[in-house]
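FIELD: query
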Amino acid sequence: MSISNNVTMFCNAKPHVFEKAKMLRENMTASEKLLWEHLKGKKMLNLRFRPQHPIDRFIADFYCHPLKLVIEVDGGIHKSRDQKEYDINREAELNSWGIKIIRFTNEEVEHNTAIVISEIERVCVEIKAG
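FIELD: result
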């Protein structure tokens, strides 16, 4: 991996972030696994998504670098006030790098998978159209 790829694709993520990302990939939640089945292998619009992808000090649940799109699958912890505040700040920082974030809850992914997939496709097409 070249340094320029590291800066653009990983935004200078440190080795410990890559290690944590690997551990998270090996222990994906049921909702993440379900969504990954629809994203992996360029199944969605021939776009490559990466699971548990390091970006600076953060780890995105799913990331599509050509679109600079992060997909987050939120569990119950994201309902807490502290976590909501952290998510807002994290999103603002990622947005400052030109990265868009879309979020879904575990429940949405598990119970409304077709709607989630349709919304992801819509956002991807919108970003590609510019």
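FIELD: remark
The chain is about 55% helix and 20% strand.
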